[in-house]
Amino acid sequence: MSQAPHPPELAADRALALAFDVGGTSVRGAVVGAGDVSLAESRVATRTGPAVLDDIAQLGEELLAHLSVAARTRVTGVGVAFPGLVDTESGTSLKAVNLGLVDTPVAAPLAERLRLPVSVSHDTAAAAGAIWVDAGSPSSAFVAVLGTGVAGMTYVEGKPIVGASGQAGELGHLVVDPAGSACSCGLRGCVESRAGARRMLERYAAWGGDPRITGVAELVARTDHDPVAAQVWSEAITALADGFLAVGALLAPGQIILGGGVAEARGRLLEPLRDRMRERAGVTAVPPVRLSSLGARAGLVGAARLALASTGTGA
């Protein structure tokens, strides 16, 4: 259990939320209060199948137990940012390929275990919404969430565009190199097959990289002296550049805002990405690209806001 060091005192009458961001490599949990401040955070490695629901519930029980009795009574709901296809009304995972789940209730078993109302959202929608608000709610923007998966949300006149299927923004499965490596979706050369966090690490290991490297931050830190890391990172940036240029050609957003764990590379991502987009743009206008301050916390913040809004206790 990791706790935010010396968390600030929050008003005693403000509601708290239990938030979870379920990713391809880890499940992050936090108790979140006003101003998106975390009183406590923890994470566990992601397991596949129904075991992931047990892990979420256990993580939630541990986080609640960490609170004082007074603080525990202020937790009004649970928000879960979940990958794949999600039925938000019923709180069901319709299909989560990376987790091996199909038509699996998520909200009901967690509500029974945690004894709190549970709201479930698609992880991209939760994270992108938080990033968009953090960026000042621009009228026109494409918000990209870069992590194990690569996805985004388009905002037009301040409203999110989800599409008829609810899957608008699946940037990670846009093919940018038909002859490229296989993607988990079954296609070849998708953006995610090169720029997804897990796939970057797999490529690095397969090309003879240092076996001790287990995170993208470590890989990026080695790019100045490790040619394998530099090649993997360069190809990831090229895939992202081509994906964002396609977004620009089709949607012409006013700006592109980057969040998620991979975006914590910050300058090592932003400057090369801007340069690569300009190099490969052709006649496509290159929109401004900037970073969100939320980084990897975007999913947790979005899930917490979802929980508070669903229970009518948000700020």
TrEMBL record:
SUPFAM superfamilies: Actin-like ATPase domain. Its EC number is 2.7.1.2. Keywords: Kinase, Transferase. Pfam families: ROK (PF00480). One of its GO terms (molecular function) is glucokinase activity. Signal peptide: none annotated. InterPro entries: ATPase_NBD (IPR043129), ROK (IPR000600). The keyword Transmembrane does not apply. Belongs to the ROK (NagC/XylR) family. This is Glucokinase. It comes from Nocardioides panzhihuensis.
